[in-house]
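Box 3.1 A note on notation
Throughout this textbook, protein chains are presented in two layers. The first layer is the amino acid sequence; the second is a token string describing backbone geometry. Keep the layers aligned when reading.
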Amino acid sequence: MHYKNLLLKAYCDNVHVDFAGLFSESHVREPIPLRFLKAIEADLYVLETALALDISEFHELLGREIKPKVFVICNAPMFSKAVPFPAMANEKEAIAFARSTAMMRNTMCLIEYPLIKTIWIEPDGNIITRIYPPGMKRVGRSLRFLFMGDMDDR
């Protein structure tokens, strides 16, 4: 993602850290003080522009036909199993297959597209889709960059 890369690169250049080794969302999950961004001369306009590019790319990805290869059967909180789909023609058929599996086994299943969306299928057959658009919001005197899993913070 553009804005995430810009921010991490600026941080690494400033503190002389290997950029590739730091590329982890756990390093930027907490709000980043605006004074830090000012100290490393991060231009907020550039970050906002990069974010706009990310959002555009995100919506382009959502519009594409994606054929999932596996789904996850959640047997218990710590026990899950990735199961390959039989040759599926499209996402709609894959969801129907995962739904029938969830209902037959009385368990939760999911189809995950990392950093894009997750489709949860509940044991009763209910389908919940969560999308994860990139985002950035001001929190007091800090900026918080929003990634997958941050949906409740938007």
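Residues 70-131 form one domain. The mean pLDDT is 78.
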